[in-house]
Amino acid sequence: MIALTIAGSDSGGGAGIQADLKTFSALGVYGASVITAITAQNTRGVSGVHPIPPEMVRAQMDAVLSDLDVRAIKIGMVAETRVIEAIADGLAGVTIPVVLDPVMIAASGDRLLGEGAEKALRERLLPLATLVTPNLPEAAVLLGEAEVTEAAAMPAQAERLARMTSAVLLKGGHLADGDSIDVLVTRQGMSTLSAPRIATRNTHGTGCTLSSAIAAFLARGETLETAVAEAKRYLSAALGAADRLQIGGGRGPVHHFHAIWPSAG
User: Fold this and answer.
1) Hey, which residues are catalytic here?
2) Which domains does the chain have, with CATH numbers?
3) Residue 44 in contact with residue 109, Cβ under 8 Å?
4) Cβ(81)–Cβ(36) under 8 Å?
5) What pTM value is reported for the model?
């Protein structure tokens, strides 16, 4: 099985392309990649972003999709409007599942998507996605609404988002208390996924990891509902093992290979 990630590079290795490829490998899927931007970042934050020219983004997509039997695509950081347009054009006629993680703000709080590109993301990529996986701040931006602050308000917001795309997984990790609640809305209905909230500061790359895990399970032939549930279980285990790692002095990564090797750093 092959999955493709279209995303930015994280020089610290905890998020972006690096997290996606680690997740694919951990879940037994061959990973291919299209790099949309190069970032200078580590566990403390992002100090620079350099978008890849849209022509090169499209060339990478064409090279991979014309040769490899890709079974699912994950889209993460898209950097700017022209890159979004190149990706959308490159997906024309593609019928395999597409998981869109609308990366706008890093866990450190650094903005990764220019405000001018938000409209292009909403209008060009959301309609092409099989599943969109926003967190609460991203959902608020996509809808032009206030950010949800309690789990009870998530289903209504998830339903409004679902009108813009095929299916939505609204992630509740930013809520302050209680279990980690996500709301999945598909054409078949709504469901809630819950997992115990894990006390760790090492959460860098959680959104990238979840969305790429969903893509990996879709590449393996699972249904969307099963892929989401299995991906959440994988992420919970990676978060639970994150403190085994000692990576950097800030917000460290989750442990993608928790089932394979016990510690690092």
Assistant:
1) 171, 203, 205-208
2) 2-132+199-244 (3.40.1190.20)
3) no
4) no
5) 0.94
